[in-house]
C-alpha cells in the first residue's frame, strides 16, 4: 500500500521521482478541506485494516502523529504510542516527551516513553550506524535514533506495524526551508514538490533500513497516493498563513490547512496548532550527539560519526 514500496521492498529512487513527477503534473489548485479531511481519515483507516491489532505509533505530540492517533482512537482501533527522548543528569525533560505526555493523557492514548541516558544513546547510535553504513550522518543518526529506539521497544511488545506522520511536512509546507521559499506561491509549491521527490534519499532509505532490521512494517498515511494528489492541489497561500495566536499576536503558521482540518476532525486547538521541532531536536537526541562528541574530545558530531563507523 505504501507508495514508495512494492511487495514490501523499497522501490528505486528513479521510480519514486517518476511517481512524484507524474502525480504533481498539471495539478490544478483546489482548496477542498472537506476532501482533504476525508482522504486523511481514509488513509489512516485503510492502513489500520491491514495492520490489525498490533499497531504502534511514532508519537511526538505534534499535529501529524497526534492526528493519526486521534483517528485511530475515535474509531476504537487499539494502538500504543511510543515516544523517544534523551535526558541526561541535571537536564530538562525533552520537549517531545513533555508535550506528548500531555496529549496522551488528555486524548486517552496508551503511551510508552523510551527515555535514553547518554550511555544508551551511544549504543543506539552505534546500532543505527551499523545498519545505515555509508548513509550515516548527523541527521540520519538523530532522526534514525528516534525511529530505531521506538521500533525496538515496540518489537519487544510484539508490535509489528508502525504508523508515523512522515510526508506531512512536504505536503503542507512544515519545514523552515518552506518558509524561506515562500517568496511567491510558485516557489513554495516547487519546494514542496522537490522535497517530496527528495524523500527517497533523505527519509525512505533510512527508515526502511531501520524498520527492516527489526522486522517492523511502516505505515505512512500522509504519503497515500490520493492524499498526495489532494494536498498538492492546495494553494500555497493556505499552507503557510498568518494567524492570531492566543495572545492576539499575528504569527506565520506552517501547515495551516492541515491544522484547520485537524480541528475539524476533533483535535483541540492546543494540539492542532502546536509548533513542532524536528525529531532530533524535540527528542534531544541531537544534544546526545553533541555530548558524546565532547566526551570523546572531538571537535564535532561528524567526527563522532567517523569514529563509530571506523
Structural class: alpha/beta
Main beta-sheet annotation: 5 strands, parallel
Helix segment tally: 16
Q: Strands of the largest sheet, in order across it?
A: 5-4-3-6-7
Structure commentary:
This protein is an alpha/beta fold. It has one domain (13-309): Rossmann fold (3-Layer(aba) Sandwich). Helices cover 56% and strands 12% of the residues. Strands 5-4-3-6-7 form a 5-stranded parallel β-sheet, with helices on both faces. The longest helix has 19 residues, at 33-51.
Topology, element by element:
Elements: E1 5-6, E2 9-10, H1 13-23, H2 33-51, E3 55-58, H3 63-74, E4 80-86, H4 95-107, E5 110-116, H5 118-132, H6 138-156, E6 161-163, H7 168-172, H8 176-181, H9 185-197, H10 199-214, E7 217-219, H11 225-232, E8 241-244, E9 250-253, H12 256-264, H13 269-272, H14 279-282, H15 285-295, H16 301-309
Parallel strand pairs: 3-4, 3-6, 4-5, 6-7
Antiparallel strand pairs: 1-2, 8-9
List keywords for this structure.
310 residues, alpha/beta, Rossmann fold, five-stranded parallel β-sheet, two-stranded antiparallel sheet, 16 helices, 9 strands, 12% strand
Q: Brief description of this entry?
A:
With 310 residues, the chain is α/β, with parallel strands linked by helices.
Amino acid at each position: 500500500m505504501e507508495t514508495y514500496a512494492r511487495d514490501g521492498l523499497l522501490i528505486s529512487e528513479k521510480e519514486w521521482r517518476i511517481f512524484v513527477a507524474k502525480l504533481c503534473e498539471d495539478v490544478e489548485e483546489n482548496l477542498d478541506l472537506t476532501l482533504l479531511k476525508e482522504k486523511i481519515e481514509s488513509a489512516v483507516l485503510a492502513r489500520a485494516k491491514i495492520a490489525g491489532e498490533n499497531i504502534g505509533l511514532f508519537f511526538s505530540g505534534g499535529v501529524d502523529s497526534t492526528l493519526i492517533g486521534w483517528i485511530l482512537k475515535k474509531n476504537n482501533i487499539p494502538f500504543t504510542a511510543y515516544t523517544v527522548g534523551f535526558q541526561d543528569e541535571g537536564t530538562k525533560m525533552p520537549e517531545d516527551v513533555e508535550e506528548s505526555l500531555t496529549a496522551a493523557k488528555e486524548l486517552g492514548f496508551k503511551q510508552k516513553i523510551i527515555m535514553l541516558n547518554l550511555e544508551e544513546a551511544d549504543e543506539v547510535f552505534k546500532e543505527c550506524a551499523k545498519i545505515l553504513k555509508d548513509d550515516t550522518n548527523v541527521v540520519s543518526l538523530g532522526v534514525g535514533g528516534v525511529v530505531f529506539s521506538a521500533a525496538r521497544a515496540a518489537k519487544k511488545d510484539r508490535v509489528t506495524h508502525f504508523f508515523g506522520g512522515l510526508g506531512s511536512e512536504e505536503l503542507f509546507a512544515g519545514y523552515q526551508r518552506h518558509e524561506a521559499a515562500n517568496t511567491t506561491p510558485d516557489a513554495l509549491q516547487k519546494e514542496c514538490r522537490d522535497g517530496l521527490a527528495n524523500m527517497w534519499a533523505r527519509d525512505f532509505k533510512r527508515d526502511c533500513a531501520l524498520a527492516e532490521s527489526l522486522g517492523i512494517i511502516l505505515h505512512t498515511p500522509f504519503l497515500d497516493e490520493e492524499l498526495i494528489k489532494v494536498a498538492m492541489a492546495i494553494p500555497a497561500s493556505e499552507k503557510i498563513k498568518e494567524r492570531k495566536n492566543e495572545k492576539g499576536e499575528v504569527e506565520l503558521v506552517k501547515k495551516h490547512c492541515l491544522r484547520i482540518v485537524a480541528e475539524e476532525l476533533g483535535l483541540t486547538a492546543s494540539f492542532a496548532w502546536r509548533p513542532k521541532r524536528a525529531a532530533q531536536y524535540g527528542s534531544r537526541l541531537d544534544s546526545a550527539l553533541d555530548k558524546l562528541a565532547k566526551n570523546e574530545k572531538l571537535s564535532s558530531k561528524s567526527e563522532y560519526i567517523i569514529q563509530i563507523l571506523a
